[in-house]
Amino acid sequence: MRSRLSVIIWIFLIGWSSALRAQSFKTESGNVTFLSKAPMNEFTGKSSKLNGLIDLEKNLLDFYVDLNTLKTGIGLRDSHMRDNYLETKKYPFAEFTGKLESIPTMVVGESRPVVAKGVFKIHGVQKEISVKGTIKMLSANELLLDASFPILLGDFKIEIPSVVFYELAEEQLVTIQANLKK
Amino acid sequence: MKRYFAVAVALLLSLPAFSQLERKLANANQEVELTFHAPRHINLLTVEPLEKRGLHFAIMHTFGTVDGGAQNLWGLDNGANIQLSFEYGFSQRFSLGIARQSRDKVYNLYGRYHLLKQTENNNMPLSLSVMGGAGVNTSNYDFLQNEAPNFSERTSYALQLMLARKFSDKFSLQVSPMLAYFVDPRQIYFIEGDQNLYLALGFSGKYKVSKRASLTAQWIPNLNSDLRNNLGVGIDLEAGGHVFQMYFVTSQFLNEQYLLAGGNGVPGEEFRLGFNVNRIFATGRKRAARE
Questions:
Q1: Bridge pairing between strands B54-65 and B44-45
Q2: CATH number at residue B68
Q3: Residue B17: inside a domain, yes or no?
Q4: Domain DUF5777 spans what residues (chain B) (predicted)?
Q5: Among residues B157, B160, B158, which one has the least CA distance to residue B178?
Protein backbone atom coordinates (compact mmCIF):
# COMPACT_ATOMS: atom_id res chain seq x y z
CA MET A 1 0.00 0.00 0.00
CA ARG A 2 2.66 2.42 1.07
CA SER A 3 4.88 1.45 -1.85
CA ARG A 4 2.02 2.10 -4.31
CA LEU A 5 1.53 5.53 -2.86
CA SER A 6 5.23 6.26 -3.10
CA VAL A 7 5.15 5.21 -6.78
CA ILE A 8 2.48 7.80 -7.41
CA ILE A 9 4.41 10.46 -5.57
CA TRP A 10 7.49 9.59 -7.57
CA ILE A 11 5.65 9.80 -10.87
CA PHE A 12 4.28 13.12 -9.79
CA LEU A 13 7.64 14.48 -8.72
CA ILE A 14 9.35 13.33 -11.91
CA GLY A 15 6.56 14.93 -13.91
CA TRP A 16 6.89 18.21 -12.09
CA SER A 17 10.65 18.32 -12.23
CA SER A 18 10.54 17.80 -15.99
CA ALA A 19 8.03 20.63 -16.15
CA LEU A 20 10.49 22.87 -14.37
CA ARG A 21 13.28 21.88 -16.71
CA ALA A 22 11.09 22.30 -19.76
CA GLN A 23 12.04 24.85 -22.38
CA SER A 24 8.56 26.23 -22.80
CA PHE A 25 8.13 29.97 -23.44
CA LYS A 26 4.83 31.80 -23.78
CA THR A 27 3.34 35.21 -24.51
CA GLU A 28 -0.09 36.77 -24.74
CA SER A 29 1.04 40.16 -25.95
CA GLY A 30 3.16 39.64 -29.04
CA ASN A 31 2.97 42.08 -31.93
CA VAL A 32 1.72 41.12 -35.34
CA THR A 33 1.48 43.36 -38.40
CA PHE A 34 -0.16 42.77 -41.76
CA LEU A 35 1.37 45.12 -44.33
CA SER A 36 -0.69 45.77 -47.43
CA LYS A 37 1.37 47.44 -50.15
CA ALA A 38 -0.92 48.29 -53.03
CA PRO A 39 0.33 50.69 -55.74
CA MET A 40 -1.79 53.60 -54.55
CA ASN A 41 -2.32 52.80 -50.93
CA GLU A 42 -0.14 51.30 -48.24
CA PHE A 43 -1.51 50.51 -44.82
CA THR A 44 -0.97 48.14 -41.95
CA GLY A 45 -3.23 46.17 -39.67
CA LYS A 46 -1.68 45.81 -36.23
CA SER A 47 -2.41 43.79 -33.14
CA SER A 48 -0.49 43.44 -29.93
CA LYS A 49 -2.52 40.44 -28.79
CA LEU A 50 -0.48 37.68 -30.38
CA ASN A 51 -0.58 34.55 -28.24
CA GLY A 52 2.42 32.32 -28.67
CA LEU A 53 4.19 29.24 -27.40
CA ILE A 54 7.70 28.05 -28.19
CA ASP A 55 8.66 24.74 -26.65
CA LEU A 56 12.30 24.08 -27.48
CA GLU A 57 12.28 20.66 -25.83
CA LYS A 58 9.23 19.29 -27.59
CA ASN A 59 9.96 21.38 -30.69
CA LEU A 60 6.52 22.90 -30.83
CA LEU A 61 5.62 26.35 -32.09
CA ASP A 62 2.06 27.53 -31.67
CA PHE A 63 0.81 31.04 -32.35
CA TYR A 64 -2.59 32.61 -32.78
CA VAL A 65 -4.10 36.09 -32.85
CA ASP A 66 -7.71 37.15 -32.47
CA LEU A 67 -8.29 39.05 -35.73
CA ASN A 68 -10.89 41.20 -33.99
CA THR A 69 -7.94 42.95 -32.34
CA LEU A 70 -6.43 43.94 -35.70
CA LYS A 71 -6.55 47.72 -36.19
CA THR A 72 -5.73 49.74 -39.29
CA GLY A 73 -6.32 53.19 -37.77
CA ILE A 74 -9.69 53.70 -39.47
CA GLY A 75 -12.59 52.23 -37.53
CA LEU A 76 -14.91 51.81 -40.49
CA ARG A 77 -12.21 50.10 -42.54
CA ASP A 78 -11.66 47.73 -39.60
CA SER A 79 -15.36 46.87 -39.40
CA HIS A 80 -15.56 46.23 -43.14
CA MET A 81 -12.40 44.13 -43.00
CA ARG A 82 -13.81 42.01 -40.17
CA ASP A 83 -17.32 41.77 -41.54
CA ASN A 84 -16.78 41.35 -45.26
CA TYR A 85 -13.30 39.96 -45.86
CA LEU A 86 -11.86 38.16 -42.85
CA GLU A 87 -15.34 37.14 -41.61
CA THR A 88 -14.10 37.11 -38.03
CA LYS A 89 -17.41 36.00 -36.63
CA LYS A 90 -16.95 32.66 -38.39
CA TYR A 91 -13.14 32.60 -38.39
CA PRO A 92 -11.88 34.70 -35.48
CA PHE A 93 -8.24 33.53 -35.47
CA ALA A 94 -5.13 33.55 -37.61
CA GLU A 95 -3.02 30.60 -36.46
CA PHE A 96 0.33 28.99 -37.03
CA THR A 97 1.33 25.63 -35.62
CA GLY A 98 4.60 24.00 -36.55
CA LYS A 99 8.14 23.12 -35.60
CA LEU A 100 11.66 24.35 -36.14
CA GLU A 101 13.70 22.62 -38.83
CA SER A 102 16.45 22.26 -36.28
CA ILE A 103 16.56 23.36 -32.69
CA PRO A 104 19.34 25.88 -32.18
CA THR A 105 21.59 25.81 -29.15
CA MET A 106 20.63 28.97 -27.36
CA VAL A 107 23.11 31.18 -25.58
CA VAL A 108 21.96 34.10 -23.48
CA GLY A 109 22.40 37.39 -25.33
CA GLU A 110 22.81 35.80 -28.76
CA SER A 111 20.35 35.40 -31.59
CA ARG A 112 20.03 32.45 -33.92
CA PRO A 113 18.46 32.27 -37.35
CA VAL A 114 15.67 29.71 -37.45
CA VAL A 115 13.31 28.25 -40.01
CA ALA A 116 9.90 27.08 -38.93
CA LYS A 117 7.67 24.78 -40.94
CA GLY A 118 4.04 24.33 -40.23
CA VAL A 119 0.45 25.11 -41.00
CA PHE A 120 -0.86 28.67 -41.27
CA LYS A 121 -4.60 29.06 -40.98
CA ILE A 122 -6.75 32.12 -41.62
CA HIS A 123 -10.31 32.55 -42.90
CA GLY A 124 -10.85 28.82 -42.33
CA VAL A 125 -8.23 27.81 -44.91
CA GLN A 126 -5.00 25.96 -44.05
CA LYS A 127 -1.73 26.08 -45.92
CA GLU A 128 1.73 24.64 -45.28
CA ILE A 129 4.25 27.43 -45.00
CA SER A 130 7.89 27.89 -44.12
CA VAL A 131 8.87 30.95 -42.08
CA LYS A 132 12.31 32.46 -41.57
CA GLY A 133 13.10 34.35 -38.43
CA THR A 134 15.46 34.81 -35.54
CA ILE A 135 15.25 33.80 -31.93
CA LYS A 136 17.28 35.70 -29.39
CA MET A 137 17.71 34.45 -25.87
CA LEU A 138 17.38 37.54 -23.69
CA SER A 139 17.83 35.60 -20.46
CA ALA A 140 17.38 32.05 -19.27
CA ASN A 141 13.67 32.73 -19.03
CA GLU A 142 13.06 34.99 -21.98
CA LEU A 143 13.12 34.65 -25.77
CA LEU A 144 12.67 37.32 -28.41
CA LEU A 145 11.22 36.11 -31.68
CA ASP A 146 11.25 38.05 -34.93
CA ALA A 147 9.80 36.60 -38.11
CA SER A 148 8.04 37.63 -41.25
CA PHE A 149 6.44 35.87 -44.16
CA PRO A 150 4.26 36.80 -47.12
CA ILE A 151 0.79 35.39 -47.69
CA LEU A 152 -1.44 35.66 -50.73
CA LEU A 153 -5.02 36.51 -49.82
CA GLY A 154 -6.25 34.43 -52.75
CA ASP A 155 -4.71 31.29 -51.18
CA PHE A 156 -7.03 31.76 -48.23
CA LYS A 157 -10.18 32.56 -50.19
CA ILE A 158 -10.14 36.16 -48.98
CA GLU A 159 -11.81 38.18 -51.66
CA ILE A 160 -10.13 41.44 -52.59
CA PRO A 161 -12.63 44.29 -52.81
CA SER A 162 -12.73 45.60 -56.35
CA VAL A 163 -14.49 48.94 -55.96
CA VAL A 164 -12.86 50.48 -52.94
CA PHE A 165 -11.09 53.63 -52.04
CA TYR A 166 -8.66 51.84 -49.80
CA GLU A 167 -6.86 49.55 -52.16
CA LEU A 168 -5.88 46.21 -50.69
CA ALA A 169 -2.82 44.30 -51.92
CA GLU A 170 -3.07 40.63 -52.88
CA GLU A 171 0.19 39.97 -51.09
CA GLN A 172 0.29 40.75 -47.38
CA LEU A 173 3.54 40.75 -45.45
CA VAL A 174 2.98 39.33 -41.99
CA THR A 175 5.54 40.36 -39.40
CA ILE A 176 5.61 39.10 -35.87
CA GLN A 177 7.65 40.16 -32.90
CA ALA A 178 7.13 38.50 -29.57
CA ASN A 179 8.78 38.46 -26.22
CA LEU A 180 8.14 35.00 -24.76
CA LYS A 181 8.71 34.12 -21.14
CA LYS A 182 8.98 30.85 -19.25
CA MET B 1 -3.71 -0.48 -8.29
CA LYS B 2 -5.78 0.71 -11.22
CA ARG B 3 -7.38 3.29 -9.02
CA TYR B 4 -4.01 4.64 -7.90
CA PHE B 5 -2.82 4.67 -11.45
CA ALA B 6 -5.84 6.78 -12.42
CA VAL B 7 -5.05 9.21 -9.62
CA ALA B 8 -1.46 9.44 -10.84
CA VAL B 9 -2.60 10.16 -14.41
CA ALA B 10 -4.96 12.83 -13.12
CA LEU B 11 -2.13 14.43 -11.18
CA LEU B 12 0.11 14.36 -14.23
CA LEU B 13 -2.60 16.01 -16.30
CA SER B 14 -2.68 18.81 -13.77
CA LEU B 15 0.91 19.65 -14.76
CA PRO B 16 1.47 22.58 -17.09
CA ALA B 17 0.29 21.40 -20.49
CA PHE B 18 2.76 21.40 -23.37
CA SER B 19 0.26 20.95 -26.13
CA GLN B 20 -1.20 23.67 -28.32
CA LEU B 21 -2.50 26.86 -26.79
CA GLU B 22 -6.19 27.10 -26.15
CA ARG B 23 -7.84 29.52 -28.61
CA LYS B 24 -9.51 32.33 -26.69
CA LEU B 25 -11.13 35.52 -27.95
CA ALA B 26 -9.36 38.63 -26.69
CA ASN B 27 -12.68 40.17 -25.70
CA ALA B 28 -15.51 37.80 -24.82
CA ASN B 29 -17.98 40.72 -24.78
CA GLN B 30 -17.23 41.71 -28.37
CA GLU B 31 -19.56 44.48 -29.53
CA VAL B 32 -21.70 43.90 -32.60
CA GLU B 33 -20.64 46.00 -35.57
CA LEU B 34 -22.38 47.36 -38.61
CA THR B 35 -25.93 46.94 -37.39
CA PHE B 36 -26.59 49.37 -40.23
CA HIS B 37 -24.30 50.47 -43.05
CA ALA B 38 -24.13 54.09 -41.88
CA PRO B 39 -25.24 56.53 -39.17
CA ARG B 40 -28.17 57.28 -41.51
CA HIS B 41 -30.69 54.78 -42.80
CA ILE B 42 -32.94 56.28 -45.48
CA ASN B 43 -33.90 59.41 -43.46
CA LEU B 44 -33.52 58.28 -39.85
CA LEU B 45 -30.46 58.27 -37.65
CA THR B 46 -29.29 54.87 -36.41
CA VAL B 47 -27.40 53.35 -33.49
CA GLU B 48 -24.32 53.11 -35.70
CA PRO B 49 -21.66 55.11 -33.81
CA LEU B 50 -18.76 57.16 -35.09
CA GLU B 51 -15.33 56.36 -33.82
CA LYS B 52 -13.46 58.96 -31.80
CA ARG B 53 -12.41 61.78 -34.13
CA GLY B 54 -14.46 60.26 -36.93
CA LEU B 55 -16.31 62.70 -39.18
CA HIS B 56 -19.47 61.66 -40.95
CA PHE B 57 -20.46 63.72 -43.95
CA ALA B 58 -23.84 63.06 -45.52
CA ILE B 59 -25.56 64.60 -48.52
CA MET B 60 -29.22 63.68 -48.70
CA HIS B 61 -31.62 64.54 -51.53
CA THR B 62 -35.25 63.93 -52.22
CA PHE B 63 -36.85 64.92 -55.51
CA GLY B 64 -40.42 65.56 -56.67
CA THR B 65 -43.13 62.90 -56.74
CA VAL B 66 -42.77 60.18 -59.37
CA ASP B 67 -46.37 60.55 -60.64
CA GLY B 68 -45.35 63.16 -63.21
CA GLY B 69 -43.79 60.26 -65.13
CA ALA B 70 -41.12 60.54 -67.82
CA GLN B 71 -42.20 64.12 -68.65
CA ASN B 72 -40.68 65.26 -65.33
CA LEU B 73 -38.13 62.44 -65.26
CA TRP B 74 -40.07 60.88 -62.38
CA GLY B 75 -39.76 63.93 -60.20
CA LEU B 76 -36.12 64.76 -60.81
CA ASP B 77 -37.13 67.96 -62.64
CA ASN B 78 -38.90 69.25 -59.57
CA GLY B 79 -36.39 70.90 -57.30
CA ALA B 80 -34.67 68.66 -54.82
CA ASN B 81 -34.72 69.11 -51.10
CA ILE B 82 -31.13 68.75 -50.00
CA GLN B 83 -29.63 68.27 -46.59
CA LEU B 84 -25.92 68.49 -45.89
CA SER B 85 -24.72 67.26 -42.54
CA PHE B 86 -21.48 66.91 -40.64
CA GLU B 87 -21.31 64.81 -37.50
CA TYR B 88 -18.17 64.51 -35.41
CA GLY B 89 -17.36 61.76 -32.91
CA PHE B 90 -16.02 63.15 -29.64
CA SER B 91 -15.80 59.62 -28.25
CA GLN B 92 -16.97 56.14 -29.16
CA ARG B 93 -20.28 57.04 -27.52
CA PHE B 94 -20.92 60.71 -28.16
CA SER B 95 -21.16 62.70 -31.36
CA LEU B 96 -22.45 66.14 -32.33
CA GLY B 97 -23.71 67.13 -35.75
CA ILE B 98 -24.95 70.05 -37.75
CA ALA B 99 -27.29 69.74 -40.70
CA ARG B 100 -28.89 72.14 -43.12
CA GLN B 101 -32.02 71.28 -45.03
CA SER B 102 -32.81 73.50 -48.00
CA ARG B 103 -36.62 73.45 -47.46
CA ASP B 104 -37.23 76.34 -45.02
CA LYS B 105 -33.44 76.68 -44.80
CA VAL B 106 -33.41 74.79 -41.52
CA TYR B 107 -30.19 74.50 -39.56
CA ASN B 108 -30.33 71.61 -37.14
CA LEU B 109 -27.88 71.00 -34.34
CA TYR B 110 -28.05 67.46 -33.02
CA GLY B 111 -26.24 65.00 -30.82
CA ARG B 112 -26.26 61.27 -30.40
CA TYR B 113 -25.28 59.32 -27.31
CA HIS B 114 -24.87 55.55 -27.40
CA LEU B 115 -26.00 54.13 -24.07
CA LEU B 116 -25.90 50.40 -24.74
CA LYS B 117 -24.18 48.32 -27.36
CA GLN B 118 -25.29 44.86 -28.39
CA THR B 119 -22.61 42.20 -27.89
CA GLU B 120 -21.84 39.13 -30.01
CA ASN B 121 -22.38 36.81 -27.03
CA ASN B 122 -25.81 38.35 -26.36
CA ASN B 123 -24.94 39.41 -22.82
CA MET B 124 -26.34 42.67 -24.13
CA PRO B 125 -29.06 41.80 -26.64
CA LEU B 126 -29.80 45.33 -27.87
CA SER B 127 -28.17 48.61 -28.77
CA LEU B 128 -29.73 51.74 -27.37
CA SER B 129 -28.92 55.31 -28.40
CA VAL B 130 -30.57 58.64 -27.77
CA MET B 131 -30.70 61.60 -30.11
CA GLY B 132 -31.64 65.20 -29.42
CA GLY B 133 -31.84 68.03 -31.92
CA ALA B 134 -32.73 71.71 -32.16
CA GLY B 135 -33.44 73.45 -35.44
CA VAL B 136 -34.09 76.95 -36.68
CA ASN B 137 -35.89 77.99 -39.84
CA THR B 138 -33.79 80.73 -41.48
CA SER B 139 -36.04 81.53 -44.45
CA ASN B 140 -36.67 85.20 -45.12
CA TYR B 141 -40.16 86.19 -43.95
CA ASP B 142 -39.64 89.98 -44.19
CA PHE B 143 -42.62 90.19 -46.55
CA LEU B 144 -44.83 89.37 -43.57
CA GLN B 145 -43.61 92.60 -41.98
CA ASN B 146 -44.88 92.72 -38.38
CA GLU B 147 -46.18 89.16 -38.64
CA ALA B 148 -42.75 87.74 -39.39
CA PRO B 149 -41.74 85.00 -36.92
CA ASN B 150 -39.09 85.88 -34.39
CA PHE B 151 -36.19 83.58 -33.60
CA SER B 152 -37.97 81.50 -31.01
CA GLU B 153 -41.02 81.08 -33.28
CA ARG B 154 -38.71 79.67 -35.94
CA THR B 155 -37.31 76.92 -33.75
CA SER B 156 -38.24 73.28 -33.57
CA TYR B 157 -36.92 70.40 -31.49
CA ALA B 158 -36.54 66.66 -31.83
CA LEU B 159 -35.92 63.85 -29.41
CA GLN B 160 -35.67 60.17 -30.20
CA LEU B 161 -34.59 56.88 -28.74
CA MET B 162 -33.08 54.30 -31.04
CA LEU B 163 -33.44 50.68 -29.99
CA ALA B 164 -31.81 48.26 -32.39
CA ARG B 165 -30.83 44.65 -32.74
CA LYS B 166 -28.71 42.91 -35.34
CA PHE B 167 -30.61 39.64 -35.48
CA SER B 168 -28.20 37.98 -37.89
CA ASP B 169 -25.45 38.93 -40.33
CA LYS B 170 -28.23 39.83 -42.72
CA PHE B 171 -31.09 41.28 -40.75
CA SER B 172 -31.18 44.30 -38.44
CA LEU B 173 -34.15 46.18 -37.05
CA GLN B 174 -34.41 49.48 -35.23
CA VAL B 175 -37.44 50.90 -33.42
CA SER B 176 -37.27 54.62 -32.69
CA PRO B 177 -39.85 56.36 -30.52
CA MET B 178 -39.72 59.96 -31.82
CA LEU B 179 -40.92 63.34 -30.69
CA ALA B 180 -40.91 66.65 -32.54
CA TYR B 181 -41.94 70.03 -31.20
CA PHE B 182 -42.58 73.22 -33.17
CA VAL B 183 -42.76 76.41 -31.12
CA ASP B 184 -44.99 78.03 -33.73
CA PRO B 185 -46.17 75.63 -36.48
CA ARG B 186 -47.15 78.24 -39.08
CA GLN B 187 -48.88 77.42 -42.33
CA ILE B 188 -46.25 79.33 -44.23
CA TYR B 189 -43.64 76.79 -43.20
CA PHE B 190 -43.15 73.72 -45.36
CA ILE B 191 -45.13 71.59 -42.92
CA GLU B 192 -48.59 70.12 -43.20
CA GLY B 193 -49.33 69.69 -39.51
CA ASP B 194 -50.63 72.49 -37.29
CA GLN B 195 -49.86 70.91 -33.92
CA ASN B 196 -46.94 71.86 -31.74
CA LEU B 197 -46.14 68.32 -30.64
CA TYR B 198 -45.76 65.28 -32.87
CA LEU B 199 -45.20 61.75 -31.64
CA ALA B 200 -44.25 58.87 -33.88
CA LEU B 201 -42.63 55.47 -33.93
CA GLY B 202 -39.90 54.94 -36.49
CA PHE B 203 -39.07 51.48 -37.81
CA SER B 204 -35.88 50.93 -39.78
CA GLY B 205 -35.02 47.58 -41.31
CA LYS B 206 -32.02 46.27 -43.19
CA TYR B 207 -31.68 42.99 -45.07
CA LYS B 208 -28.25 42.27 -46.51
CA VAL B 209 -28.37 40.73 -49.97
CA SER B 210 -24.65 40.70 -50.73
CA LYS B 211 -21.41 41.66 -49.03
CA ARG B 212 -21.88 45.29 -49.92
CA ALA B 213 -25.59 45.75 -50.57
CA SER B 214 -28.73 45.69 -48.48
CA LEU B 215 -32.41 46.21 -49.03
CA THR B 216 -33.73 48.87 -46.69
CA ALA B 217 -37.09 50.03 -45.39
CA GLN B 218 -38.47 52.66 -43.07
CA TRP B 219 -41.98 53.16 -41.71
CA ILE B 220 -42.89 55.99 -39.36
CA PRO B 221 -46.48 55.74 -38.12
CA ASN B 222 -47.69 58.95 -36.45
CA LEU B 223 -49.11 58.47 -32.98
CA ASN B 224 -50.94 61.76 -32.35
CA SER B 225 -51.72 63.35 -35.69
CA ASP B 226 -53.90 62.60 -38.71
CA LEU B 227 -51.01 63.05 -41.09
CA ARG B 228 -50.21 60.21 -43.42
CA ASN B 229 -47.47 57.84 -42.26
CA ASN B 230 -44.00 57.88 -43.77
CA LEU B 231 -42.96 54.88 -45.83
CA GLY B 232 -39.65 54.33 -47.57
CA VAL B 233 -37.99 51.42 -49.36
CA GLY B 234 -34.55 51.36 -50.86
CA ILE B 235 -31.11 49.91 -51.25
CA ASP B 236 -27.80 50.64 -49.52
CA LEU B 237 -24.57 50.14 -51.45
CA GLU B 238 -21.14 50.17 -49.86
CA ALA B 239 -18.23 51.26 -51.97
CA GLY B 240 -15.12 51.55 -49.88
CA GLY B 241 -15.49 54.43 -47.49
CA HIS B 242 -18.79 55.51 -49.07
CA VAL B 243 -22.28 54.27 -48.46
CA PHE B 244 -24.76 55.15 -51.20
CA GLN B 245 -28.42 54.98 -50.25
CA MET B 246 -31.11 55.09 -52.91
CA TYR B 247 -34.76 54.92 -51.99
CA PHE B 248 -38.37 55.75 -52.68
CA VAL B 249 -40.02 57.66 -49.86
CA THR B 250 -43.32 59.45 -49.24
CA SER B 251 -41.81 62.61 -47.70
CA GLN B 252 -39.47 65.18 -49.14
CA PHE B 253 -38.14 66.10 -45.71
CA LEU B 254 -34.82 65.13 -44.27
CA ASN B 255 -34.61 66.27 -40.67
CA GLU B 256 -36.47 64.69 -37.77
CA GLN B 257 -38.87 67.55 -37.01
CA TYR B 258 -39.98 67.95 -40.62
CA LEU B 259 -40.25 64.18 -41.12
CA LEU B 260 -42.91 64.09 -38.41
CA ALA B 261 -44.73 67.36 -39.15
CA GLY B 262 -44.18 67.65 -42.89
CA GLY B 263 -46.83 65.24 -44.13
CA ASN B 264 -46.51 62.40 -46.61
CA GLY B 265 -47.74 61.45 -50.05
CA VAL B 266 -49.59 58.29 -51.01
CA PRO B 267 -47.13 55.37 -51.25
CA GLY B 268 -46.68 54.42 -54.89
CA GLU B 269 -47.74 57.30 -57.14
CA GLU B 270 -46.49 59.95 -54.71
CA PHE B 271 -43.22 58.26 -53.91
CA ARG B 272 -40.20 60.47 -54.30
CA LEU B 273 -36.79 59.32 -55.37
CA GLY B 274 -34.23 59.88 -52.64
CA PHE B 275 -30.49 59.61 -52.68
CA ASN B 276 -27.93 59.84 -49.84
CA VAL B 277 -24.18 59.76 -50.00
CA ASN B 278 -22.45 58.97 -46.70
CA ARG B 279 -18.74 59.35 -46.23
CA ILE B 280 -16.82 58.77 -43.03
CA PHE B 281 -13.46 60.42 -42.61
CA ALA B 282 -10.91 59.54 -39.97
CA THR B 283 -9.46 62.78 -38.66
CA GLY B 284 -6.36 62.96 -36.53
CA ARG B 285 -5.34 59.68 -38.10
CA LYS B 286 -1.58 60.04 -37.66
CA ARG B 287 -1.97 60.51 -33.95
CA ALA B 288 -4.28 57.53 -33.76
CA ALA B 289 -1.74 55.33 -35.55
CA ARG B 290 1.00 56.23 -33.11
CA GLU B 291 -1.08 55.35 -30.07
A1: unpaired
A2: 2.40.160.40
A3: no
A4: 36-281
A5: B160
Question: How many domains does chain B divide into?
Answer: 1
Chain B: nearest CA to A109, how far in angstroms?
A: 25
**Gap between the Cα atoms of A76 and A113, Å rounded:** 39
Least confident range of A33-42, A142-151, B113-122, B182-191:
A33-42
Q: State the best of B5, B7, B14, B18 to mutate against chain A, taking most chain A CBs within 10 Å.
A: B18
Least confident interval from A32-41, A60-69, B128-137, B247-256 = A32-41
Query: May I ask the CATH architecture of the domain A25-181?
Result: Beta Barrel (2.40)
pLDDT reported for residue B287: 42
pLDDT, tens digit, 9 for 90 and up, residues B55-101: 999 999 999 999 888 888 888 888 899 999 999 999 999 999 999 99
Q: Out of B26, B211, B280, whose CB is closest to A49?
A: B26
Contact A82 B289 (CB under 8 A): no
* Nearest residue to B32 (alpha-carbon basis) of B212, B168, B130, B203: B168
- Residue A166's alpha-carbon distances to A68, A120, B243, in angstroms, are 19, 26, 14
> What average pLDDT does the segment B112-139 reach?
96
Q: What single letter denotes the amino acid at residue A90?
A: K
Among left, alpha and beta (phi > 0; psi -120 to 50; other), residue B105 is left
Q: Is residue B14 part of a domain?
A: no
Distance between CA atoms of residues A92 and A102, nearest Å: 31
